[in-house]
Write a structure and sequence with these properties.
Keywords: Membrane, Transmembrane, Transmembrane helix. The radius of gyration is 21 Å and the shape is elongated. The protein is an all-alpha fold.
Amino acid sequence: MNHQERERQVVFALERLLTSEDPSPKRWRLASWGLGIALWLTLSATFFVCLMGPQVARGLLVVPFLAGFVGALRMYVTTITRQWSILSQFIDREAVRQRAAELRHSDVAR
């Protein structure tokens, strides 16, 4: 993917987010909630793996690492959700709209 394609994706996604009336996008809130459930499930599985003692299968040793990964991912998503309502105030909405219009116009001209 080249620079122009990435710019198009970012500008259009940012335009969608800025025109949304929802201060923190619903998709991020749902992802945070779902990851919270997944985190509790993997932490519970980790607890049971620890209780199994030395006879635990080596394949089950990946469960604690999975719990750590899910926990880190949830923290990332939760941080994005909480910060968006503040960060969106400092983005020049008109400049984003103008750039999106320019990109749409260049698509039509091709």
